[in-house]
Amino acid sequence: MRNMIEGRPARLILSFSLPLLAGNVLQQTYNLVDSLVVGNFVGKEALAAVGGTFILNFLLVSLFSGLGMGFSIVISQFFGAGKGDRVKAAVDTGYAVSLLGAIPVTVAGIALAAPLLRLLNVPSGATMEMSSAYLTILFAGTVGSFGYNLNAGILQGLGDSVSSLGFLAIATVLNIALDLLFVAVFGWGVEGVAWATVVSQTVSFVIGVVFIVRKLKLTDLRLKGFRVDAPILRECARIGLPGGFQNMLFSLGTMAIQRLINGYGPAFMAAYSISGRIDSLAFMPIASFSSAVTTFIGQNTGAKRLDRVIRGHRATQLMSGAVCVTISVGIILSARFLMGLFTQDQEVIENGAQVLYRLMPAYFMLSILFTMNSAIRGTGESLLPFIASLSSFLLIRMPAAYLLDHFFGKNEIGWCYGLGWIVGLSVAIPYWLSGKWKTRILR
Question: Is the pTM of this model over 0.90?
Fold first, then answer.
């Protein structure tokens, strides 16, 4: 556990974000291996199935992931204020809500898998069959996924980014080994990739629980003493649910764009999927810095340290922006090479490169927007980031994708991202500069 209310903000945020970055690298390695294995051992239909169905899984788990973010922020504020008993109550409440919530999500996900895939306009035949099997297995493992992410949120709120890195490393190594075993050796195809994900997340979840119970002694997970603290749950819901609804709306909007992509067939689906993986790699430093600044500001909000909140936000913007620009330029210069790591299909490579050429020039705006929204969330304000993200995505990016496709062709769809980020910044920047977020710290 790390106290972030003393010491140089830039150094604390950087040192906290580095394990998070390593964790994000492992997480993306986790996802990339899935694509690499099916792309090289099965084919582009399987690659399209794995990449094109991710958003459906994200849709049904997003509400609870938002609630998990609320628990992480509340825990960080309790920890910064020195309220150890409230930290333990928040941990108990988080486990109870997440584990119980996994049950309806599992049932709904399995029941709705096929109808949602048809809604996404997934091509019939092999791609549809593979997508349905992959998605059904992922939903069967929702409990492991929820618990795996809740453990990371608890540890992040306490300022511990190293332990969660270790649990993620275990999951990643296990996932890679099982991917190769189930697909390359047993020949299970996309089902093997899905089972590898479910097993590795569940194992990591169990190991994380043992650490939190025995090492940190934050809960004993005994059903007899298990209870939900209603005031804590309400506060976590107030902070986290807007983010969860934002993720759900993001998922629905992405499904609309994915439907557009799927209409061009498996080759373009695969290209868009691979470019999305590369996009995820570029996003890792932004996500790491943003997670770090949320915890830093959460703890300093609990300690009423307004000066450190301002300094921490400024330092994070500078660090995240510099890294983001460097990575964006590198991807633009090596787009075709990066695409070629996943497939030898020249049509897929060319289509994916065209997406990256239009996405990466505007990427620095995402760094500014995401860092600012994360800082605002750390103070306990959740509505403004929700409005900024909603404006960016549903009001601009999604309609822009269809308009760009209609008037200029499929290769121009990538410009929709930058157009959305401009609008999101027009909402977030004036709010931050107004200083209204300070009231939550000073009251």
Answer: no
